[in-house]
Amino acid sequence: VATADARTGQHLRVSTVGDPLRLVDLGCGNAYLTFGAYAHMAVNKKEAMRVVGVDVKRQARETNARVASELGWDDACRFVEGTIRDAVVAFDAGERRSSGGAVEGADGTGDVEDDVAKPEVDIVLALHACDVATDEAIARAVRWNAPLTLVSPCCHHDLQVRLRDAKIQPFPPLSRHGILRERLGDIITDAFRAHVLRLLGHRVSVEEWIGGEHTARNVMIKAVRTGVGADRATWEEYDDLCAQWGVTPRLAEMLEGELAAARAEAFRE
How far is the C-alpha of 200 from the C-alpha of 226, rounded, in Å? Predict the structure, then answer.
């Protein structure tokens, strides 16, 4: 459904054997989602795919690579060890260039890629990346110009602390009690994330992707990159949200340069 939606308006290309779709799962863990996505799209839907899973744990990389080999998918699914923010993402050996022209190690580790070595990424996934790791995943998707981004956030501690420490408390009854402030922080964090993506040229929806009986972390942010800039009214909504709560979201700090350029374009006379 998400890929069909992204192909509306031709924002996500149709793959071919010679030019497969490229999917990155950031913070893949044991790669249940990575393999599930590949099985659904490549095996069931016959979509030509290349997949990279990123996780900070060496054990995850080694185990996932072994499973991919056992499934016969090791030509299409590879795994690298590194953080969501910095891991080098390369879909084949020819792309294994990292910052400063260094070559990515055979063990799947390496430095952050520079603009020249930036990979072409079509779909970015991030399932339950803790706290600001979700913001790091979104920031990488934005900088890759990924046509489709799907993230399901986990905990939201960063903004909860910012709300607690803010000089402005616009609705004290909502922030007086810890449990209410925590849940409020969840909502405001994801509202900021969705709005920042809108400001940077994405069509965004926030949806429940699985029943609450399975997990309380069942919100998904779906962003399709259209390249259409936000208008002044959308920017004013963002500014009002920041002013009302007395905070700036971490994602906006990560994408400060991109937001500044987009704002200048929106307010250009």
Answer: 9
Q: Cα 240 vs. chain centroid, distance in angstroms? A: 25
pTM check: above 0.70: yes
Sheet holding 21-26, edge to edge: 77-81, 49-55, 21-26, 123-127, 148-152, 219-225, 202-208
Q: Cβ(224)–Cβ(194) under 8 Å?
A: no
Q: What is the pLDDT of residue 166?
A: 86
The CA distance from 163 to 23, in Å, is 35
Look at residue 30 and tell me whether its pLDDT is greater than 70.
Answer: yes
Read off φ and ψ for residue 113, nearest 5 degrees. Answer: -75, 150
Q: What does residue 101 show for φ and ψ, rounded to 5 degrees?
A: 85, 5
Length of the chain counted residue by residue: 269
Q: What is the pLDDT of residues 150-177, one digit of tens each?
A: 999 887 888 888 888 888 888 888 888 8
